[in-house]
Amino acid sequence: MAKTILISDDDSSGDAVPDGGAKGLVQRDFRAHPLGSFEYAAELPDNLIIPRGEWSDRLNLQKKFQSRIIDVRNRGMDGKPIPSRDQNGRGYCWFHSGTTCMMLARAAQNEPYADLSAYAGACIIKNYRDEGGFGAQGLKFQAERGIPTSEFWPQQSTSKKNDNPKTWENAAKHKWSKWYDLEPRNIDHFVTACLMGWPIISDFNWWGHSVGTMCLEEVGNDWSKIVSWILNSWGDKWSQNGAGLLKGKKAAPDSMQCCVVTYASAA
Q1: What is the distance between the alpha carbons of residues 101 and 103, in angstroms, rounded to a whole number?
Q2: Number of domains in the chain
Q3: What secondary structure letter does DSSP report for 116?
Q4: In this structure, are residues 243 and 84 in contact, taking their beta carbons and an 8 Å threshold?
């Protein structure tokens, strides 16, 4: 069994980044794209924020009843773990993070497993170029057009033949219907989303990378006490079946969107 990678404030990378591992994050310009500016986005209402005094008890209950997103992931494919996505060296992490979160949210809603293909939207947005982006950019496309399964757009394929009406008819079955644009590095927003069971599209400027945050392992009233589980897009050979831990300020996303509801659909 592979050792779980933990990246903390004392370890900027360690063995977290594989040789030749592309990342591809372009830092979000909040002057050009302020909070809540995307058509399908909304800022998190204050009345949804969970009081800090409840954090520890709520996390303990999640662990007791195995209701964290990591637990959902581990049984989300007919009782087996949902495979992590694999960007395969291209700078498409920013679309894979949203795809990962959609798969996790679908599992949390008890929807059937769908092998979603992140290359589809990334190729269309970037005109098939190997270019970076940011998580909210990918999520906007996912809300508008959706994500097809690998039956219609094979994993890691850059063939333009995949871009056809049947592909996007299938993609329309896998869209976001509700999500929140959270304040960057806001611990109250971050912890609330985790305790609500909402996967988070998480952009990390220090890493130059975007991943899906699944849930909390440890919680406290400042970032130094936070330990979060992420699901990466470098395949299941990275860390523990593609999942690793971030601790302290390394766990604080510089742009984050919590993914609440997908359209209910068949696979």
Answers
A1: 5
A2: 1
A3: B
A4: yes
